[in-house]
Amino acid sequence: MAHLGTLHLYTKKLPAFEHIPSNSPSRPQNTLLWIGGLSDGLLTVKYPTSISQALPKDWSLAEVLLSSAYDGWGTGSLARDAEEVGKCVAYFKSLRPSGKVVLMGHSTGCQDVMEYLVGAGNEERERIDGAVLQAGLSDREGWEAIVADDPALKESLEETIDLATKWVEAGDGDAILPKKGNKVLEMFESPCTAYRAYSLLVKGGDDDYFSTDLEDETLEGTFGKIPSRTKVMFLWGSKDPYIPEAVDQESTLKRWAKIVKGGGGSVDEVNGGVIKGATHNLNDDPEDVVQELVGRVVRFVGGL
């Protein structure tokens, strides 16, 4: 399928694809930058195209390609992602100096957005006007759920965590973990460093922003530090298979929103929330479910 748009080279080797609706009458002034999850790349998730067609005429959506896209996630880090996202934000701000910029993360793209907002060096990054966190989930809790009923997989996960921890503590975090004989690492598909495995699978790892078992004090140091100038919206799907079944989705999102607001931040709780019938990336969801997501995002940016 062909997609009408512009490919921007926002830094030396990395592009962003800006969708241009066929009925767009003028050049947009505001930009929604979409960041995918682990193994995603340009156009691998379908709903950004639908959002691009429904945005107000003064907005456009661009999908950001990072070094961690496709199979690159296993040798990357949130810190590198945030640095590249910063370059993309700066690029579009230079194109549209008076316009607004919103970051929208999908899955691990949400961790990237959080890292951009509150991670080390955030004070030096370009300001953004809004952040949409769609399917921001815990990889750690997801893998715990995957292996729960399979003793062999559970053992492989424990071995992976033990080995990754040992290598990181020994200063070998950049080394690639051996896959042979480890069912979990074989399921990763991408080569994975000890650091990234540790970051994803250990409580308190750099990727551990969205685990539901994190204490309020920990969340106050992340969600509670989101700048007041950046309005946030949380979105989950009621049928997302990566959310543990025991988790009360509505209560969890309300808890996160309360912590953001307690730190002086702003949350769109009218348009945010749980989308009934939505799965993780909505690729095979009914059109009415996709349009529910689209409508929420359009209303969010329209209200900034």
Automatic annotation (TrEMBL):
Coiled coil: none annotated. Pfam families: DUF1749 (PF08538). Gene3D superfamilies: alpha/beta hydrolase. It comes from the Eukaryota. InterPro entries: AB_hydrolase_fold, SidJ. This is DUF1749-domain-containing protein. The lineage of its organism: Eukaryota, Fungi, Dikarya, Ascomycota, Pezizomycotina.
